[in-house]
Amino acid sequence: MFEYAPAPESVRPQIKEHYGLFIDGEFVDAESDFKSVNPATEEVLFTVAEADEADVAKAVAAARRAYETVWGPMSGTERGKYLFRIARLLQERAREFAVAESLDNGKPIKETRDFDVPTAAQHFFYHAGWADKLAYAGHGPDPRPLGVVGQVIPWNFPLLMLAWKIAPALACGNTVVLKPAETTPLTALMFAELCQEADLPPGVVNILPGAGAAGAAVVDSAVDKVAFTGSTAVGRAIAKAVAGSEKKVTLELGGKAANIVFDDAPIDQAVEGIVNGIFFNQGHVCCAGSRLLVQESVADDVLERLKERVATLRVGDPLDKNTDIGAINSAAQLERITALTEAGRGEGADVWQPACDLPEQGFWFRPTVFTGVQQSMRIAQEEIFGPVLSVLTFRTPDEAIAKANNTPYGLSAGVWTEKGSKILWAAERLRAGVVWANTFNRFDAASPFGGLKESGYGREGGRQGLEAYLDV
Ligand code: NAP
Ligand code: MG
């Protein structure tokens, strides 16, 4: 294998030493602060104000004012212009946002530069186009916004999850109060600066950094709707908290997707899809293909080629353009991944990891492949949310579907076969919101995304995703 020379990214974003809460168009201080660290080095990047209940109430009041006096009455055409402006500004500052995201989150620059930031911009462009065409979206002739929306997002795609939440909400005429994840507030705060630059009316977007308590305060506040992306445990708590109130809620939760490889699949292509399915974004992906189901007759061949390919993945400095796998986002997440991997060993699965050096500072985990996995094992049932693949085998297509559906989750699935009829047959039977065929982890603003069962309810993206932000 060729060795690569380091190719460090040279752009450095302007990161402030301290950020406030973004309420009513201004950055304001709070009673307490917390730190955000770079998980690849454990260095503190900046300090940031932490929102409490009173701050949430102020932000919701500002959002309410903006909704009633400016944003709600504004025509869709005018709202669209603001969204186009935000999308263009995001594109102009794309490299800066990409580097900031890699610093705060630990994910490789290759991914933030080529996926996170362009896809976030795409969501604003896409929804800007809907703002004046809502009457044609299939949700009635004159669909109305809901009002003020409280949004809580996770750390795995900080800017992209913000875009998935804010773009449709604003396009439909709502105003928002958003809480980014505790470990990754940076790009949300830079987005707040971008809202100022775009002259977005004050109060339309409010950004409140904080931990779980701030998220709970947003859920409990006087918002008209709660939109949440995160774990199933917190999603369940939110559903309980809003039950019996007038608040609408959408939940995008966890997953344990099956990636099914039939014996007639193009093997090399499938191996690329398996690698992308589980090692993209360190496996911190709700729809990750974390369970590989491979037909017994081709299992040895697939596994051999898979290990060969995984051994070429480069783990290390997120800001090196050659890096495939960056840092694990936090010490807590590294602990969870380590504990579940230990459980897999303890339950008797065979573990394989490539030999690779890991940096001394920061949070790192080697790409890991478990074989000999039984359906009852924790590594086959629980979401690991890390670079860990569990491999199971099957003999018949019916067995593949039965095993794939044997999970409380239902977010996504993948099917690899050369036969179109088999793809359609499988897609019909898989209990998953998204099914990819001969590809994996593909996203588009025009395509709805969301889960079944314990993966949540509601859709994001596409015409269907608008429904979550309209009073229909
Ligand atoms: P999490 O613990 O549920 O956190 C998600 C967000 O909720 C964070 O902002 C968190 O704040 C906040 N939060 C924590 N406790 C809360 C409470 N009681 N009330 C309100 N908000 C609260 O999830 P995570 O571990 O950060 O993220 C990983 C999970 O998200 C995985 O299960 C993954 O599958 C899921 N996910 C799903 C999708 C999807 O589209 N379906 C996309 C991405 C991720 P803190 O930052 O302080 O914890
Ligand atoms: Mg951080």
From TrEMBL:
<keyword id="KW-0560">Oxidoreductase</keyword>
<dbReference type="InterPro" id="IPR015590">
    <property type="entry name" value="Aldehyde_DH_dom"/>
</dbReference>
<dbReference type="InterPro" id="IPR016163">
    <property type="entry name" value="Ald_DH_C"/>
</dbReference>
<protein>
    <submittedName>
        <fullName>Aldehyde dehydrogenase (Acceptor)</fullName>
    </submittedName>
</protein>
<feature type="domain" description="Aldehyde dehydrogenase">
    <location>
        <begin position="28"/>
        <end position="471"/>
    </location>
</feature>
<comment type="similarity">
    <text>Belongs to the aldehyde dehydrogenase family.</text>
</comment>
<dbReference type="InterPro" id="IPR016162">
    <property type="entry name" value="Ald_DH_N"/>
</dbReference>
<dbReference type="InterPro" id="IPR029510">
    <property type="entry name" value="Ald_DH_CS_GLU"/>
</dbReference>
<dbReference type="InterPro" id="IPR016161">
    <property type="entry name" value="Ald_DH/histidinol_DH"/>
</dbReference>
<feature type="active site">
    <location>
        <position position="252"/>
    </location>
</feature>
<dbReference type="Pfam" id="PF00171">
    <property type="entry name" value="Aldedh"/>
</dbReference>
<dbReference type="GO" id="GO:0016620">
    <property type="term" value="F:oxidoreductase activity, acting on the aldehyde or oxo group of donors, NAD or NADP as acceptor"/>
</dbReference>
